[in-house]
Amino acid sequence: MIQGLYAITPECAETALLLAQVRAALEGGARLVQYRNKHGDTALRHEQASELLTLCRSYKAPLIINDNLRLAALTDADGVHLGAEDGSVAEARIILGSGKIIGISCYDSLERARTAEAQGADYVAFGSFFTSATKPAAVPAALDLLHTAKRQLRIPVVAIGGITPANAPLLIEAGADAVAVISALFDASDITSTARLFSSLFSGVIQPGSTLIH
Is the pTM of this model over 0.70? Predict the structure, then answer.
């Protein structure tokens, strides 16, 4: 399931708008969605996560909750993505159960990825590979990290950070099973077409009528 375009939601206080944006990404072929909201209150996060879960399941796409293990459990989301300070794989597995997806941010650390895999993570994410508007101070990761990770790890590898349709092929060629995207997808004038373009990169086929959107 961890393959292709991994859409990460932008900060959005308007639930109807957020749902419309995510629906457009799913229509374009996004394979997974991660709900990321750092500033909303508890009620808004619960509302948005619950409605996104219903939407994602109608497209058979897993909904992963960013950082918030409690929210993932409360909404019965399909999994959680944890950063360095968001709890352990073991804790997440106990709370969510064996059937849920647990992803771990590994930044530029292959050692952290090895540990996550040994502890039972379902995928690891590396980055930032390019300058990120969402996290401008993010730790940079080298492209060679993906090559090494694919040789040494058995679980899927996700690339994140400043990814666009123009630079995503470099990451896919280096071994990324999925590319996690926020700005280049949700800031696009046509989200569905952009999602379709990202998705086509994994098959090596640019669909007719697609154009690079920056």
Answer: yes
pLDDT for position 203: 86
Predicted confidence at residue 135, as pLDDT, reads 77
Query: Can you list the positions of beta strands (E) in the chain?
Result: 4-8, 32-35, 63-66, 79-82, 101-107, 123-126, 157-160, 178-181
Annotated catalytic residue within 135, 150, 183, 210: 135
Q: Does residue 135 have an active-site annotation?
A: yes
From the candidates 31, 50, 105, 132, give the one annotated as an active-site residue: 105
Pick among 3.20.20.70, 3.40.50.10710, 3.40.190.10, 3.40.50.2300: CATH of 4-201: 3.20.20.70
Q: Examine the residue annotation and report whether 210 is marked as an active-site residue of this protein.
A: no
Give me 118's structure tokens: 């040994």
Asked if 117 and 130 count as a contact pair (C-beta separation under 8 A), the reply is no
- What are 125's two structure tokens? 């994410």
> What are the per-10-residue average pLDDT scores of the chain (214 residues)?
96 97 98 95 97 98 97 98 92 96 97 97 97 80 96 98 97 97 98 98 58 35
Residues paired with residue 192 on neighbouring β-strands, in sequence order: none
Whether 105 is catalytic: yes
Contacts of 46 (CB under 8 A, 6+ apart): 71, 74, 75
Cross-strand pairs, 64: 34, 79
Supply the DSSP symbol for 104. E
